[in-house]
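Holo model, acetyl coenzyme *A. Inputs:
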Amino acid sequence: MPFAKITQTAHYVPDNIVSNDDLAKIMDTSDEWIYSRTGIKQRHITVDENTSDLAAKVGEQLLLQADLSADQIDFIIVATISPDSSMPSTAALVQAKIGAHRAFAYDLTAACSGFVFALSTAEKLIAGGYTRGMVIGAEVLSKSLDWSDRSTAVLFGDGAGGVLLENTGTKPLIIAEHLRTDGSRGNSLTSNHLELQPELLGRSKPVAEFIKMDGRAIFDFAVRDVPKNIQETLEKASLKPEDIDYFLLHQANSRILDKMAKKLGAERSKFLQNMQDYGNTSAASIPILLSEAVKNGKLSLDRNSKIVQTGFGGGLTWGTLIVNL
Ligand code: ACO
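Output:
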């Protein structure tokens, strides 16, 4: 059976930076409140690029780095909760933008767990016989935010990151995995609900649905269910936290990372962090973190490192992959 390997990583964020102080000018908040509760200092907010534009930039970069032409790509999966449209999918738009005519392409919706769910899926596509694919997490969450709601508007940002996956591995890419969903708790984090035909039923037209969140419930979910999930996945692989080079967790909140490290008995310094620069970019947060770590030399794609990738968010969804780089 062919083994998948991550052969390239890349990320792209829009140029426009919005600091906490900038937000304090348009809503009742402060850098002190935001930074002390979340670890976020700034976020990138797009002015004229949509989700498929950010994702296509990542796709082009992956091709350039790998010295491949677009028609050598078999599939493109884009994990996103902020697609340009329901139809065509963001992945289809990316396929056209980068000219990957041979690739089949689709979006995967699992909120902040999206990249982890997509990488798991893509690994199975490679095992099934495909040669090469792209897995991209891309979000323009700024278009789903209610800028008058300070409790959510300060948390999120726009960006994209992704990997090139090829069938050139000499060992399994994913040593162990554990993906979970609990739809019964879905109401604690919602966005873009589509109402039944209001005019036809004589109801007033509903206002657009922005991201809504029960912050406390999500915080509790993150610090209770998620470390348990990581622990169970480590046990499946007969590994201990000290066997892991780095933990790449969804970048929602630095206090969540502090609690996770404590619960797992793992060194906090092994939990990579960049939400100070980007805010919470949902499905893009883990691939941006990975791409940055490869770029700054913390991680190499050829050093036989073991990393934990854990996503958690709307659905509710959560899941861990233990990955051999
Ligand atoms: N600036 C200033 N004050 C604010 C802001 C803000 N941006 N937002 C809320 N407040 C106020 C509230 O109005 C409230 O005031 P009150 O006491 O007068 O009513 C006070 O601050 C405390 O509000 P809480 O919501 O209780 O604040 P909390 O300490 O729980 O922190 C936070 C909120 C940071 C969202 C926290 O609940 C959290 O970290 N939750 C985890 C959820 C998360 O990170 N979600 C990201 C998306 S989901 C995901 O990616 C998994």
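Residues 29, 33-34, 37-38, 112, 150-151, 154-155, 189, 213, 215-216, 218-219, 222, 250, 252-253, 280, 312-313 surround acetyl coenzyme *A (CB under 6 Å). The mean pLDDT is 95.
Archived with the compound record.
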